[in-house]
Amino acid sequence: MKLPEELQFIANARMVQKTTAARMDGRLCILTGATSGVGYHAARRLAQGGANLVLVCRNREKANHVQQELAHQYRVDIDIVQADFSRLEDVRRAAETILAEHPRIDVLINNAGVHTTRRTLTGQGLETVFCVNHLASFLFTRLLLDRLIESAPARIIQVNSQGHRFGGLDLEDLNWEKRRYRGLQGYGASKTAQLLTVWELADRLQGSGVTINAMHPGEVRSNIGMNNGWFYRSYQRYLLWRFLKDPEISGNAIYYLAAAPEMASVSGKFFNQTIEEKPAAHALDRIVGRRIWSISEALTGLTGNV
Ligand SMILES: NC(=O)c1ccc[n+]([C@@H]2O[C@H](COP(=O)([O-])OP(=O)(O)OC[C@H]3O[C@@H](n4cnc5c(N)ncnc54)[C@H](OP(=O)(O)O)[C@@H]3O)[C@@H](O)[C@H]2O)c1
After folding, report:
1. Catalytically annotated residue among 187, 232, 255, 256
2. pLDDT for 204-250, tens place per residue?
3. Which CA distances in Å does 52 have to 71, 140, 154, 194, 211?
4. Cβ within 8 Å of residue 179, ≥6 positions away
């Protein structure tokens, strides 16, 4: 039985995923949030494929463990840059460090993400989930963009989520001051904003040799949400956990999108792991997309055209 288009993501999750035998020897991948879950497995798979890595992580101790473990197993260079993505000044500092130390960037993978059940604000007064999941990756990508273009062919991968289908993006209330905050909708809003800016950036990058795509990494066991209260944590660990998959599948999917030769010129698409999929209709609204692009530029202090 064929599912209606808006439910096709359920069938796609069960499809056999694509893989590649292509290697990434000597290529440089910048990866955010590599200390657990999806990002950790992406780092493992990329190192196994020969890629050199810059791990952009907020917790240096955890990042050191990942670095030591992977450097012990694979003959690749692994650097760490510390940054808390709820602080946009950290994002700027991380980008400056990378630009100073790495003359080329082959792949940028924005993976760091968070889900909170309660509304919290960053030091800059921004709703935290929106800041970490969308604004930080938006700013980071823009700050590294010229280097990616100089390094072309290059790829940008936004680790997004089926959670974008929860919606919640209200351009008049991005900070949830007028509505009661709901965790899933807040998460959905951040991921919707990210998707909308992927289409915008893909258009602007046409002909540059740099591609940008978004992906859902699968429903996998990770630490996401474990920053919430005991009720949510218990629900995740004792109920949800058994239905979740090994995050190794997410690492493999990210590797495919980063390395597969057949992905070299694919841009502006959403993938359910490795299967191209149509996102929710609200995440395809290009009028809202142009507005969230400008708002994101203003909130992150970006000036100048791409
Ligand atoms: N797991 C799933 O089923 C699933 C499904 C759909 C989408 N995703 C997406 O996959 C991505 C990775 O999530 P995950 O499931 O692997 O969760 P995770 O295990 O909690 O990993 C999240 C990563 O992001 C980092 N991070 C969180 N807040 C940060 C901040 N303020 N600054 C810098 N880094 C920060 C974490 O660092 P620490 O180690 O310091 O906490 C960790 O490395 C997210 O974008 C998430 O939305 C996951």
Report:
1. 187
2. 999 999 999 999 999 999 999 889 989 889 888 888 899 999 999 99
3. 10, 19, 14, 26, 20
4. 170, 173
